[in-house]
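Quick log. Single chain, no ligands specified.
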Amino acid sequence: MSIIYSPVQSSKHLHVETETVKSLKVVGDAVGQLVLKNDTCINAIKIDRIRAHILKSTDRLFKNKIVNEGIIRKEIFYVNPDNVLRFLSEDVPFTLTVDIPGLSPGPLTHVQNHLLDIHVDYHLKPAFSCFPGCLKQIIVAHIHFIAAEWRQLELVTSMY
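-> predicted structure:
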């Protein structure tokens, strides 16, 4: 596409070439903090380590708000009463809400989320005799949300 621009005080013409591009314009971003408490009955005398990650998540858009629903998978490595290292996997559902002023849901709205960090703090009441232990956990995660809208822009590619 060519556009001819004619300055008022000059007899020369300036030719400007443009190109139409589709781009994301950021509406806003926010960091949400997720805190979950979880208790697990486990036949353990010691916890070796707990790893956690987000297994899946879905964003639902509302006016000025994002609701993120998903599942955190915890991998628990523990020692049982026979002194054998064991493994247990557990899925914990979560819901997180963040406010993003100016967000309006629509077909041109796009949201990205990125897990910044996730930590698990725990306390084990060890198994004793024929009674299982109880693993009390608190999961803390920070997730960065970025909301953007698709826009069509005219960019100048050359002038002569």
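DSSP finds no helices and seven strands in the chain.
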